[in-house]
Amino acid sequence: MVKKIKANDPSLKSWLEISKESDFPIQNLPFGIYSTKNKTKRVGVAIGDQILDLYQLLKLGYLDSLSFCEHCFSNEYLNRMMGHGKIEIRDLRNRISELLNAENPELFQNKEAIAKVLDLQIESEMYLPVKIGDYTDFYSSEQHAFNVGSMFRDPNNALLPNWKHIPVAYHGRSSSIIPSGQDVIRPKGQQKLDDNENPIFGASKLLDFELEMGFITFQGKPLGNTISTQEADEFIFGMCLFNDWSARDIQKWEYIPLGPFLAKNFASSMSCWIVTLDALEPFRTAGPIQKPKILPYLEYSGNKHLDIELTVAIQTENGAKKVVTNSNYKYMYWNMNQQLAHHTVNGCNVNCGDMLASGTISGPEEGSFGSMLEISWKGTKPVKMPDGSERRFIQDGDSVIFNGRAKNKDINIGFGELISKVLPPK
Ligand code: MN
Question: How far is the CA of 291 from the centre of ligand 1 (A)?
Answer without folding.
Answer: 24
